[in-house]
Amino acid sequence: MADKKAQLTIEGETWDFPIMEGSTGPDVVDIRKLYGQTGKFTFDPGYKSTASCESSLTYIDGNKGVLLHRGYPIGQLAEHSSFMEVSYLLLNGELPSADELYDFENTITRHTMLHEQLMTFYRGFRRDAHPMAIMCGVVGALSAFYHDSTDISDPEHRRISSHRLIAKMPTIAAMAYKYAVGQPFLYPDNSLSYTGNFLRMTFGVPAEEYEIHPAVEKAMDRIFILHADHEQNASTSTVRLAGSSGANPFACIAAGIACLWGPAHGGANEACLNMLHEIGTPDRIPHYIERAKDKNDPFRLMGFGHRVYKNYDPRATVMQKTVREVFDALGVNDPVFETALQLEEMALNDDYFKEKKLFPNVDFYSGAILSAIGFPTTMFTALFALARTVGWVAQWNEMISDPGQVIGRPRQLYTGPTQRDYVPLEKR
Ligand code: CMC
């Protein structure tokens, strides 16, 4: 196995490069010595063929529509597990025992409050600030409040900052919502589950008891599981790249949140529901399908297509089932969901989508559930960020603990002017 090699011939000269094998999935050609030996770089904008790291967290087989966390299929985790359990699994590599889960939940619960001074931070934002703008700012600001856990060379600091990030994210997201609607912030209630606590901090008010709907709590927890990690996606790679310079974890996760916000990534859930509202009724679907196929029209079907999945996104399968469960539990009948179902059917039967292997992704159905629960569209990506924090943190920890870790520093194909002399202003 160690002898597998790839050969590269450039202008008649041939070099050998080792081939590395993972536990499953495509092998990789180790080109770390390519530049040193040949004086050439590889060119791969968008990293379509580049493995940026070794990782043992999450595996995706995009052709088969498979997603595994530490080996466990996402469908099984969504069905039988909880977000706290999946968080433990991602961070520690194994499912917890009952005692380990109890201790982990207790630890997370004890970090849910925010430094009181951070509350005043919110008031600096406009009331109509996008929750993701607030999340970027407040999460980045955590590094100004928790100096006692920013020494990344200390495993204990890394452990505490990881727990703090996972624990405080629901409080931060709920407060972003409360600030927008002008209601008082609610402190966390440590007697509740991670997800129940988030729902209460978001929708509860101090004037009365908040009753957590069990079906909503279960669905929300499942949505968090579905978003927990997704190997080396854009925001995770951003976190890793930021972390590779030695930046503190709060700053790295803030960078991940910024990257997630874009409509090609986590921002697609908000964009998708807005698109479904714009389509409005099923009779208008063909017009939007034609627009999505038109090369001269920038419109794309949001919630459709994926860099890695060339098959149905397994998260979308669970999401679609969860929509029905939530609608049944809440007695909701949302015409937007019907439009989504018909849009999916029409797109999947269309040659353009078939040829390009474009299938619904996790964001296609999440908006329907989240709005049935009561979230405004602007909160959708903030919820994605809340859940993805565990993946970011686990990936960041994996990177920092890797003895071979070096600063990420891509090269380029330079196409600008070659060296020339400065021209004084009067001669230009
Ligand atoms: N609607 C119409 N055409 C599409 C779509 C779409 N949603 N997605 C891809 N295509 C076409 C694209 O025009 C291109 O055609 P051609 O080969 O003729 O130029 C081809 O399919 C390949 O697309 P690409 O943009 O080269 O593929 P990519 O891997 O760079 O992009 C993507 C992946 C997710 C950015 C893209 O599919 C997209 O923009 N989808 C809509 C946004 C979306 O739903 N994003 C959420 C992703 S899942 C959540 C997450 O993990 O972030």
Q: What secondary-structure arrangement, pairings included, does this model have?
A:
Elements: E1 5-10, E2 13-20, E3 28-29, H1 34-38, E4 58-61, E5 66-69, E6 72-73, H2 74-80, H3 83-92, H4 98-109, H5 116-122, H6 131-141, H7 155-181, H8 194-203, H9 214-226, H10 234-244, H11 249-260, H12 268-279, H13 285-293, H14 314-330, H15 335-348, H16 351-355, H17 363-373, H18 380-401
Antiparallel strand pairs: 1-2, 2-3, 4-5, 5-6
The structure holds carboxymethyl coenzyme *A (CMC).
Architecture overview:
- With 428 residues, this protein is mainly alpha-helical.
- Helices cover 50% and strands 6% of the residues.
- It is built from 18 helices and 6 strands.
- It has a 3-stranded antiparallel β-sheet with strand order 1-2-3.
- Helix 6 (131-141) packs antiparallel against helix 7 (155-181) and helix 10 (234-244) crosses helix 18.
- It is globular and about 75 Å long.
- 39% of the residues are buried.
- The site of carboxymethyl coenzyme *A has 20 residues, from loops.
